[in-house]
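Structure tokens please, single chain.
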Amino acid sequence: MNEAKNLIYDGSFNGFLTAVFVAFEEKIEVSNIQNESIAQQGLFSDSEKIYTDDDKAKRVWNGIQKKSKQASSSLYFAFLSETDGIELLAYYYIQKLFSYKQKVHLNYADDIVLKINQIAKSVGREKHRMEAFVRFQLTKDSIYFANIEPDFNVLPLISKHFKDRYADQQWIIYDLKRKYGLFYNLESVEIIALDLDIAHTNSIYKSSAFTTEEHDFQQLWNDYFKSTNIKSRINLKLHTQHVPKRYWKYLSEKKAM
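Here you go.
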């Protein structure tokens, strides 16, 4: 009997899919699949470093999509959740997809299928919130800038939305928690890293990084937002359900004047 192995990958989705390919091809008994940045060797298992191979990853991905486009979407969303142990859970999910002919991804009585779908839905909600709550500020370099701190790694999911919506503007959306961002240069979206000293929030203090016109516009928007509010009709509980407080510091209309 083969000893169980802990597969270590580079943290990318293609790296994870490569680990799945290797596990299937070599018939490895998998004890865990871990991101190399947080990997810990198990007490009763050997570790094997997996090097990302895009061709192998593509073969696994194509196989999943042939089984179900819905299942592939749920799997990708769940992976981006960064939930502890998501890789092993996703591996078991893929095993089930390839082991059964019926639509196993719709079998919510299965604990693994149910968990993947629950996590994917949470990521989907965060994606839609980011698409709604991102607030750009115009920098002196004529680039619209926004920083965010989503619960999940949703930047790969919102890229197309903002590229389509703001196709005529250069913009940057930066994830402060994960220390990387997206830069649209009017032609394509690139992944970037920045050395940010501070987060640009909706503070009443004016940052020198942004234009005077930007500060004036934010003032006008904040005044408009306040003027349209009817205090007697404010339902704070309902409001925070739709706009959780953790997003307020990046919303210009929430600036305290």
